[in-house]
Specification:
This protein is mainly alpha-helical. It is built from two helices and no strands. The chain has one domain.
């Protein structure tokens, strides 16, 4: 697993969630989309957590330079 790709994808999904929350429209469609995004975010967070638990490297954005 590439922690940099994982973190980038998490940030993209967070942006998409925030975008959908601010959009008017069909509430049922939005709830379905938000649930899908939340599931994807949970999977990515779980994968990164497992990576870190097993001594994987931090994403570059989380390292001190």
């Amino acid at each position: 697993m590439d922690p940099n790709v994982n973190l980038r994808q998490q940030r993209e999904i967070i942006g998409a969630i925030r975008f959908h929350q601010d959009q008017p429209g069909n509430m049922e469609d939005q709830q379905t989309e938000l649930a899908d995004l939340a599931g994807q975010l949970a999977d990515l967070a779980d994968a990164l957590d497992e990576w870190l638990i097993h001594n994987g490297a931090l994403p570059d954005a989380w390292r001190r330079s």
